[in-house]
Design goal:
Blueprint (H helix, E strand, L loop, with lengths): L4 H20 L20 H17 L1 H4 L6 E4 L3 E3 L6 H15 L3 E2 L3 H16 L19 E13 L3 E14 L5 E14 L1
Parallel strand pairs: 1-3, 1-4, 2-4
Antiparallel strand pairs: 4-5, 5-6
Helix pairs in contact: 2-4
Length: 196
């Protein structure tokens, strides 16, 4: 039985095309992280940046922070999500804290959610017997925060067959831990509309 080159050529060509298509995958490119993101009306990266920048600027101008001789110690509670969509509020919290720290006008004590790691580290250093005494971080020396920052994000969503309108409101408060007084508060509103 004689096999021609034509018989082999077609399956080999089909296999090569199939491999090229399978290996090509999605096209990925980098974009500007500050570029306005308008994929849909849901909470997105532009909203995060607008909220963090507005809140940081406002808080740094507050009397409690700008009028302080020394950079006050602050702790930051996770932002509460009161919307109907999933929002990783820890990202909001982290972005605000990073911008405040970069200003040099505020120092941060560990938050409630970070306290477990802090106490475990102190226990490890003080109780394991593995560390040289002169290098151990001693217990009882943590500094309490003068203020705490608490906030929430909420939304109102209205839809019909052609339009989805989402209104977000983000609130942030600076609370004096000793007196319980709210020393500063601000909000950022965002409205997004998507049409079909």
């Amino acid at each position: 039985m004689k096999i021609s080159h034509q018989t082999f050529r077609l399956p080999v060509l089909s296999l090569a095309i199939g491999l090229l298509v399978a290996c090509s995958g999605p096209q990925v490119r980098y974009g500007d992280a500050k570029q306005v993101e308008t994929v849909n009306a849901d909470y997105g990266s532009t909203d995060l940046q607008m909220i963090a920048e507005a809140m940081t600027r406002s808080l740094l101008q507050s009397k409690a922070i700008s009028g302080s001789k020394d950079a006050p110690i602050v702790t930051l509670a996770d932002v509460k999500n009161k919307t109907s969509e999933y929002i990783d509020t820890r990202v909001i919290t982290d972005k605000i804290r990073t911008q405040l720290l970069k200003s040099g006008q505020v120092r941060f004590a560990v938050s409630i959610s970070e306290m477990q790691n802090q106490t475990e580290e102190l226990k490890r250093q003080n109780q394991s017997g593995l560390y040289k005494n002169s290098t151990i971080s001693k217990t009882g020396n943590m500094q309490g925060a003068q203020y705490r920052i608490e906030g929430s994000i909420a939304s109102i969503v209205k839809t019909n067959k052609d339009v989805k309108d989402v209104y977000y409101v983000f609130n942030l408060n600076l609370i004096n831990n000793e007196t319980g007084l709210i020393e500063w508060a601000d909000e950022k509103e965002i409205r997004k509309t998507a049409t079909r």
